[in-house]
Each structure stands twice: as C-alpha cells, then as structure tokens.
Fold these 4 entries.
Entry 1:
Amino acid sequence: MKLFILGFAALIATGSAFADTTAAASVIHDKPGFFMHMDVAKVLSSTDTYGQCGIVPARLDYLDSQGREHVLDYQVQGIGCPNDN
C-alpha cells in the first residue's frame, strides 16, 4: 500500500513539473446582447461590410482599458446594395 501511495505521489509530482505555468494571453469572446456594456479603449480591427447586401456577420477586435483583447461577433445590415436609397 505504501508503494502505491509513493508511486501516485511521484506521478503527481512529475505531472506538475511538466505543467505549463505561464499564463497565456487569452482572447475574451464577448457575446452580443441588448444593452451590452463595452469597455473599448482601442479598436484593433472591424469587418468592412461595404458592398454586401442584407444581414451579414461582422467581427470587432478591440482592447479594453486594462489592455485585454476582446472579440465580438455580431450581425449587421450590410451597406452598399445597389437599390438602397
């Protein structure tokens, strides 16, 4: 029984030694909704919907005031349809 416990402890120690301890800079995926508070400090990129008709998917990549990167996927009315006034 002691051998089993010793082997299990060694397995856990080996696993934790090879674990990745660096914090990866992960991107936060926001979910669109009504009355959503957005903390946008800098826009990194956005989808160009010129020349697309109807409802099209769009994406906004931005940094918040704490420097964290966010991605927002949403639907938007395309602009640039030939019969729009």
Note: The chain has one domain: 25-85.
Entry 2:
Amino acid sequence: MFIDYARIKVVSGRGGDGCVSFRREKFVAKGGPDGGDGGRGGDVIAVGDENLNTLVAFRYNKLFKAKRGAHGEGSNCTGKTGEDYYLKLPLGTIIYDITDGKHEKIAEITKHGEEIKLAVGGNGGRGNKRFATATNKAPRYAKPGGDAQEFELELELRLMADVGLVGFPNAGKSTLISRISHAHPKIANYEFTTLEPSLGVVQVSEFESFVMADIPGIIEGAHDGKGLGIQFLRHIERTKSLLFLIDINSNDPFEDYQILKKELHMYDPYMDKKKHLIVLSKLDTIPEEEREETIELLKKEFEEKSQENIISISSVSGDNIKKLTRELYEMVKLEESEVE
C-alpha cells in the first residue's frame, strides 16, 4: 500500500538519575561518596532506507520512543546509556516539526544510510561523588536525569526517480512502465486506473539502468485540485527528467502536451523546465498504411510549434521501445553530468 503522508510523535529517552551512595567496606569506617552518574537517554534518529518507498509503516503506529538511561549505582557505576530508536524512512521524505501548531521544515532524507537526530536524549544526572568538595566531603544529594524531548512531526514523501512519467489518464503510462521495467501497476481501459505512484527500474543494458516513476494521470486544472489534484504532482518535483506520454489517437496531441506543461508550470514554474522527451503512445492502433504519414505530420507540427522532437512507440508491439529506453538513459546521464 502506498502512503505518502503521516503524522507521528517521537520521544527521546530521559536521562537516568545520579546515585547517592557511600563506600561500605570492612575496616573503612567513613567511606566517601561513590554514587555513579545516570546513563544518557537514547535519541530518536531518522535514517534513510533505499529499500522503502512508502510511509505505510506509520499508518497505525504513531508513537516512537527511545529508551531512558539507567540510574547510576554505587561503587562509581555509571548507568547504562538508553538505546537509540532508529526511524527508517524512504528516500525523499521531508520532515516537518508541527509541535504546538507550528509547521517548520527540519530535515529532508535524500541518501541511503543518512542519519538525522529528531529528538535528543536527556543527559544522565551526576552522582553524589561529583559534588564532593574539601568542605563537603559527604554530599547526600545527586542530580536527576535530564528531561526527554518530545515532538510532533509531519512526514511527507516525494518519490525520488530519474524519470517521471507524465500524461493524461489512460495515455498508456502503466502499460509502458510494465513493459520496460519490473513494475506491475494495475492496467485497465478507463481513466485513473493508477491511483498511486509506482517505481520501476528500467534495465537498458547489463550495467546501465535508471528508475522511472509512474505518476497518476494529470488533467487540466490539476494544479487547482481537479481530478486527483496536486496530491501526486509533488512526486514529479523529485524526478531528474520527464517523459511526456501522449495518446497518438488524441484529437490534438500537441495541445495535450501544452496542457501538461502548463499544469506543471502552474504547480511549480521550474517543473516544465526539466529535461524531457515527448512520446506518442499506442502506435499499434494506427493502421499500418497510415502510420508513416501520421507520424510525419505530428513530427512537423511539434518541430514548427515548439522546436521539439517526438518518438512514437507501441508498448504492446514493442515498436521503438529499445530506442526510447536508450534515449531516456542518455538524457538522465546528461542531467547528472550537468549537475556535477
């Protein structure tokens, strides 16, 4: 199940109390203070995990607590440090502090193994040995452990992928990603079949691959909440590049492309400036004797109106699929080299 939003509570461990103790040994009438310090409380730590792609683990479990530190003991024994709690999060998770009504971004998980402290454990209290002085050789007090930290957090997942697959409902996105990757989204001949984003690894060659995200269909007005609204548009923000998939049977494929670009721009002006490819799908539905002429006319229109090239494919017959995956891979590598 794909979940990309959650609210949780994290609580660090309280520090252990310092100990009040005195040496009790045979033949030592007045043993000095030997109370040990309390152990430090555990931290709550967010850690990036590339094997996760959903926040479903936080759907029902809302409270995450680290262990408290153990109290100090006699014979100068320091209490055991409380165990940290590691909160595993998928890459692309943004963490907001919403304690007491605020909404402050505090972290963003982007790398596997990356660790960010969300709540710091309390310090251990000092034992009475720490308070011994020349004028007070037998202090009978110790310091309590430090308080735990407690925060309410909002988690928002934005999928990280090399290529974001963008198009109108029923444009053939799910069929394409299932053809070129090991992803298995639901496929049917009606709008909004895809109700949640999915990731697929596209293997171009033995040592070349990229990750593609299938984004639920966009409709005109999506940035204002129409259709599935902006609920999934945020996932496109993380992609390095875009693949605009347009049904070749559309009444006006170029107008469809313009609408898609406009929706992305209205949501985020940077989005329609990403590197991209324009792909016309369902080539197999055009009669063979009409294909060449249809493709040439559409190529000419896109070139004249937007100086854009197009690729026509069929996910069913496999026409131009290898060419498409190769061009997508080259586009991703070019984007990565420019960022570096």
Note: Residues 5-157 form a domain with the Spo0b-associated Gtp-binding Protein; Chain: A, fold (CATH 2.70.210.12).
Entry 3:
Amino acid sequence: MKTLILIVVGVVGGIIGGMGMGGGTFLIPLLTVFCGVEQHIAQSVNLIAFVPMSIVAIIIHCKNKLIDFKVVPYIVVPAVVLSIPAAILAKKLGAKALSVYFGVFLILLGVYQLVVAIKRVVNEVKKRATTGRSRQGE
C-alpha cells in the first residue's frame, strides 16, 4: 500500500511541477505528511525530481522564446554558489527545525502571492474605472 501512495505522490508532484507551480511546494509536504518520509529525505527526493522537470521546462521555454539569457547569469551564479552553504546548513539542522523553516517559507510565499494577486486586481479595477470615466467624458 505504501508503494501505491508513493507512486500517487510522485505523479501528483510531477503533474504540479510540470504545470509550473513548483512541484516541491507540494511534493515535500505530501512525502512528509502522507508517506512519513523525513524532511531531509523529502527535500533530497524533490531535488532529484527537480532535475528532469527543469530540463524539460527549459527546453519548452527556449522553444517558446521565454528565456531572457541576459539575466540568466545573475540568477544562476548566486543560486549555485549559495546552494552549497544552504545544503550544509540543511544537513546540520534537525528534521523538526527544517520542517518548521519550510513551513514558514511556504506561509511567506503564500502571503506574497496573495499580496501580488490583490495588487493586480486593484490595478485592473483602477484601470477600468479610469478608462470608463474617460469614455464617458467623450
């Protein structure tokens, strides 16, 4: 039964990751909550699963000309350099602390996404109101 749950979790994580929503955002909690996998192992699995998903995503984005190669070094170099101390830190932290930090990260990410969405809606409403007034004045 556990094997079936692991397969379902892998399929769900792969589908969500393939849709560009960040499969790890769901894969790690699914592995830890439903499969009883330790946080360190769940994050390792996520990193391993991320490699093929990111390669496919890069190929698709290149074909669709959605990558601005001028900014790539400014993102890739710090990410690679900082991944080393982050991995060392993650190894030194206990599973409980790592789970708490990951939970806080997800909450902050959710709040950020909510604020961005609200700002977008407010700007759209303002834009429509402004456009409506200028048309009424004509």
Note: The chain has a mean pLDDT of 85.
Entry 4:
Amino acid sequence: MQTMNIQENFCPKCGGPTENEGICNKCLAESIEWIVAEPRVVCAYCPTCESVKQGNTWSDTTKERQVLAEELALGALHVHNDVQDLHLTVESHEPSPNRTKCIIHAEGTLYGVPKTARVDVLIAWKKEQCDRCNRLSGNYYEGVIQVRATDRTPDLHERVRVEAIATNIEESLLEAGDRLSFVSRIDDTRDGVDIVISSHHIGDLITKQVTAELGGRTTRHPKLFGERDGKKLYRITYLVRLPRYRRGDVIEVKNRYYEVRSVESGTLKVFDLQEGIMNVIREDDAYRIVANVRDAQYVTVSFIDGDMAGILDPDTFMPITIPALAWLNLAEGSAFRILRDRENDRIVPVG
C-alpha cells in the first residue's frame, strides 16, 4: 500500500497528489476547452478570376479549392496557448457545390496530459465580383496614354515596344499585389498608340519606361471627373511625344553620315560613321533621315585592296568596292552591316 508524505499537496477535485497548490494537471487539462473552431466560415470568391476576399481585401490565388478550404478551416481554429506538440490533419469533402465540410483531427499535450479532439468546420462559398473585375466590366479608367511622334508617326517597332512595355508593367504590378492598376485597352491608331489605364500609378510607370527606352517627353493633362470620400478624382491624358529622330536612325549632315544613339534636350548624341567616334550635334529638322540600322543588311568582304574593300551589292549581287573605313577593322571574309542611301545611291557602312 502506497503511503503519502504529509508534505504532499492534494488535488481538491480528485484527491490525488499534485505538484501544484491547486488542482492537478490531469483535472486542469480536463477542465479546459483546449481547441475550438468557428463552425462556419464564409469565403467570398470571384467567379470570373477566382480571386478570394479576405476581410475587405481581394487577393489572387492559384490554389485549388480543396487546399484553400483546408487552409480556411485551419485558420478558424483557436488553440490554447499552453498546448504543446500540436499535430493537425484535415479531411474535406463537398456536400454541395457551394459548401465544403472539413474535419480536423487534433493531437497535442496540455500540462503533460495527452489530448485528442475532432473539430468540424463548414466552408460556405459565396460568389461576388471582385474589385478588379468590377472595374473591368464597368469600363472604369483613370487615364489615357497617347503615344505620338514629332513630325512623323510611330513606326512598327515603336508601336510593338510600347504595347510590350504596357503589358509587362501590368503583369509586374499584378504579381506585386496591385490589382487595381491594369490596362483596359490598347488601340493601334493611325497617329500612334492609345492605352486606356485604370490608375495614375500604372500611367506614370508606363510613360516613364516608354520615354526611357524610346526617348521623347511626356505632358499630363488632368480633368476632374468626380469625388470619392471627399477626394477629387481626375482622369489624366498622358501625351507621350516621341522624338523626330529614333535611336538607330542614320542621318545625313553636310554630306556626312551619323547614327543617332540618343536624343536629349534638343541635342543628338551620334556616332560618326566616317570617323567611328561619338559626337554631339544640335537637333535640327533639316537633317535628312536615310534609314534605321534595324534595316541594315550584312555583307561579306571578298577582298581588301589598300583602303578599299570589295563586296557584293546585296540588291544587284554585282561586285562593288567601298572605302575600308579604319574603325570597321575589315579583313577578307569578315562580315559587317550596310545601309543604302537611295537618294544619293551610296552604300553606308554602319558596323
């Protein structure tokens, strides 16, 4: 027969020994509701884009519905702070198209006492159009970007690049969680490209990137169209004016040829195609545009004779000679690019 030391504490509930001054761990663990859950969780989701609403915030998700339901069920749990070695498993099934029932099996220890429990959570799916799809369906917009060019129309390369910049920025903002900055529409017009945008933020990013890559400048023309929560709302027309000269344009200046490398504040940074050096000249409407280096053709050197090089004319396939410019470092069998100045019937080496 076990004897008890007179100094031991006794549990007032079960009469057994306890290390505490009050009830023992077993009775304490039994008296505590150690794990509970909200029996029903409502989850709003957008049937168009399948984004999910958490509180008042919509978020994109690529998770399968079963995985999302189990995460929502686990998020509905409330576990006592003193539980240790917690282990949870979830089973789920759909009793109806708009309901998912989750059964959570829980194991853990509370004050050294092993505990097990089963908790049921019902996920109720609620269809609701998200903020982004609501704006898209309502043709909401906060600005229009009009891309034009000075004394010309934007060429195919510039139009394609502008559309790619707008699309890439839209995708990067969406990945970063900015759901309300998007491109509503892109129109390829006779005069250039028009981009309808949903926010000033994406408008600023697109215009900044376009001018950084293609040159030019942007002017903004805001127009008040309403108020929200006491704040005035403006629609902005962004006019992006691309420069007359494009990067890569070969121009004739006083019978010399230059390749435009950049256009900045009324000056052109150019590459002298005669000397092979960089230079800066004043922007002038009188310069004649010969072509763009994107349209250059490759030719192969058939021979070198002093300061002359032999090639085949890419149009007639007849042998011709051109100056072997020092900066080209030509050698027999080497390839380089040329443009044809059709107005003056000249071959212009561009490297």
Note: The helical segments are 25-31, 65-75, 131-137, 156-175, 200-214.
